[in-house]
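The methods section describes the discrete structure representation at length, but only in general terms. Each protein is reduced to its one-letter sequence and a matching series of backbone shape codes. I believe one specimen quoted in the main text would settle the matter. An entry of this sort, consisting of the sequence and the corresponding backbone structure tokens, reads as follows.
***
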Amino acid sequence: MNSSTQDLMNQLQAYSQGSAAISSVGNIISFIMSVLAIIGMWMVFNKASDHGWAAIIPFYRDYVLCRVARKKNLFWPYLICQVVTCISSIIFFISFLTFFFSIIGTAMTLDADSILTGSSVGIVLSFITMTIASIAAFVIRIFIYIGLTRCFGLNGGWVVGLILLSGVFFMIMGVSDNICYIGDGSGDYSQSYGQPYGQSYGQSYGQPYGQSYDPSNGQPYGQDAQNVYGPQGNPSQQSNPYQQGNQSQPGNDSSNPYQN
């Protein structure tokens, strides 16, 4: 083996070692981010008074996330996109292996041309399907994150953070005491229905009765009692015709001892 070949082998070996080291670091970072995302999502679900343990269950985690984000209608499209992406990835991998083995001549008992054609079609179709489903799932995920940040009173910058560094931003949302679940207000009946009825009832019914009642004046029925019983207010205080007659005729007063 000459020196040039030896140098080439050394360079290839160094490149493979560097690639393995970079791949190992990438796998470690990906694992750490996944763990942070699960822990943060658990705490976020607990803040929304939902099942925190759903963060460790695939697919059900996405359903709870859509429910917390008030985007339940996006769960089934998102699930279909995920399933299609997974199936397309499997078909792509199988088609690629079939294409590779047919080239190197391992399938000697079958028609190599038909295998190459079928595997090529499988690679192309599965790649297109996988790409479309992945893009659709990514777009739906953005809308879910928009609803999630709105329910926690956060701005659009958090959507970008959840897309790029979901583990870190989920942890911040779960740990921070200043971030609370408030909902988006679309299904809050206390704001859309409770206040109008409460205000109208208090103004139209509560105030007339409340203002007219004055216990210090001895008017339990309010100011309207004066209009009902006359200008003197209390019927017991009206003039008695018999008493007026006795007062107008003092001679008939039996209490006068000098009358007789």
User: Anything to note?
Assistant: The chain has nine helices and no strands. Residues 186-215, 218-239, 241-260 have pLDDT under 50 and may be disordered. Residues 3-187 form one domain.
